[in-house]
Amino acid sequence: MSAAVGGAEFHGLRGASAQLPRSRMLGRQLRVAPPAAAPAGGGASSGGIRAVSTPLKKDASEVKRSKVEIIKEKSNFLRYPLNEELVSDAPNINESAVQLIKFHGSYQQTDRDVRGQKNYSFMLRTKNPCGKVPNQLYLAMDTLADEFGIGTLRLTTRQTFQLHGVLKKNLKTVLSTVIKNMGSTLGACGDLNRNVLAPAAPYVRKDILFAQETAENIAALLTPQSGAYYDLWVDGEKIMSAEEPPEVTKARNDNSHGTNFPDSPEPIYGTQYLPRKFKIAVTAAGDNSVDILTNDIGVVVVSDDAGEPVGFNIYVGGGMGRTHRVETTFPRLADPLGYVPKEDILYAIKAIVVTQRENGRRDDRKYSRMKYLIDRWGIDKFRAEAEKYYGKKFESFRPLPEWQFNSYLGWQEQGDGKLFYGVHVDNGRVGGQAKKTLREIIEKYNLDVSITPNQNLILCGIDQAWREPITKALAQAGLLEPNDVDPLNLTAMACPALPLCPLAQTEAERGILSILKRIRAVFDKVGIKDSESVVVRITGCPNGCARPYMAELGFVGDGPKSYQIWLGGTPNQSTLAETFMNKVKLDDIEKVLEPLFSYWNSTRQEGESFGSFTNRTGFDKLKEVVDKWAASPSAA
């Protein structure tokens, strides 16, 4: 057999003794996106396309813009032509409305398993800062899934629900029901701030509570203000689940440093909103349940010696999305930006968002994320620009402990006399008897719940007396305690991919359980214990929704029944993986995994994770191992 196993190609080769590059630990990349196109009529480009509606921009005709930028500008703050398309008789909406409905929390999809016709439906995504879901909202979502969806709920990697299969004629009913039951979908998709992550565990602990409160305040600060959402879905009735904290309102309205659009319905976003999606996570020091380095902004609570939160370290410039065969697109880890006192966090966040709003590219959406701006400028220039909008200097980064991944599964004490239980849900898909049982438990005991960034569900506020009946009911529904679940499954994630995602090149959610069983079979064959595991993440395309580029073993769809294989992430999600092979056919994965896992098992250092092992060994040596195994009689 040739060196290219199963037709696969090796990439990202490194020498066995090569030191892990800084680009994979702190996000500094050597690849640079191409510059923005020069304005029509000549003249050198400044490298970025400014938000055309800011007071700084004189004439929108001076810049080249993507078609989405034109759609946003003409939409009357996300209304037109979506408002007209929603009442037409067609089962679908036009391209302009497709772009706008994303801001309202929905994607138009077709069932790709149905051949010969377009079978249109809509996916709805909720907005749940910290993953918090009130009892009333959970029950409403459960009912909506049965009445208007496909009978399942999907827990996402950003702590939200996805509801698939909603027909256009039912959209208003479904969204208005969400809104009237303490929920929202506003800003769950589109070119603005998405759901803000935070540790999902309901611990009564100062740093966790402060992280969750901060995440909720940031989410409120960056929520669209124009009212279009309520106009379209509840006929203009603005229903608020809770009154906005006054410090949020004050920070949004503050224009001391030229951040706002005066007299605009959208003081922060203007008519153009952001160049692209924007993701923020907040966490406590050491808690990396949120994949902190993969976000546009990562916010970390810093506490004093007495455990009192005093401020925040801020990371900027993370992001997962890339495009196959376009080397100037890449996943990137966030860089340390600096520290701010706790009273300044909303102003610092706003300054960073405005820096991206004003300087992020709007001509080519492949390069519109903030990670490309920081990669092009460097962190020092970005910091200096953000400080203009912040109005002061960022202080030096405070020391942090080593990151740890926390799943928050199983029974745990909240710290207030009550318990919580983290339910493992394979791929976040809640359906069948499990869905029925979860509803019964949540309804009977009047529980609030929380969604984790690893697609699991936490039942909160449980009395000690309820523990035994809840444990029994969950087990009968097939929702096993963590100790009874294969460790591979506990940390694995997959995006939905086929059949509804239009970007999917191959399976992810529908294929991951089979792949995990095959990995466990390879473990058994080479002598790896049942208690051992690696972090496996699978996506159907390179956009990276399940964050495969942080996995010890990542599968990224690159064709029908074909995957790129990425190696080198670490269990605490602090290191970026790299491409090891391209075009590995699904049927051939053992030809790659068996020699890798066998070599890991025989040559690893004590306690060395698979990801750390691949980094220490280097891709050159690993390629040699796979080649040698492929040529051996045992591989035939």
Rg, nearest Å: 24 Å
Question: What is the makeup of the main sheet?
Answer: 6 strands, mixed
Strand order of the largest sheet: 1-20-19-18-17-16
- Name the helicity range: 25-40%
What this model shows, in words?
31% of the residues lie in helices and 15% in strands. The protein has 636 residues and is an alpha+beta fold. The protein starts with 8 loop residues before the first strand and ends in a 5-residue tail after the last helix. Helix 5 runs antiparallel to helix 13. The strands form 4 sheets. Strands 1-20-19-18-17-16 form a 6-stranded mixed beta sheet. A 5-stranded antiparallel beta sheet has the order 2-3-6-5-13.
Summarize the structure.
This protein is 31% helix and 15% strand.
Topology:
Elements: E1 9-10, H1 22-25, H2 67-73, H3 82-85, H4 95-103, E2 106-110, E3 120-125, E4 132-133, H5 135-148, E5 153-155, E6 161-166, H6 171-180, H7 206-221, H8 228-233, H9 246-253, E7 280-284, E8 297-303, E9 309-316, E10 335-341, H10 345-359, H11 370-377, H12 379-390, E11 410-413, E12 419-423, E13 429-430, H13 432-444, E14 449-451, E15 457-462, H14 467-476, H15 487-491, E16 493-494, H16 509-526, E17 536-539, E18 553-559, E19 562-567, E20 578-585, H17 589-603, H18 610-617, H19 619-631
Parallel strand pairs: 7-8, 16-17, 17-18
Antiparallel strand pairs: 1-20, 2-3, 3-6, 4-14, 5-6, 5-13, 8-9, 9-10, 11-12, 12-15, 14-15, 18-19, 19-20
Helix pairs in contact: 5-13, 7-9, 7-10, 10-12, 11-12, 16-17, 17-19
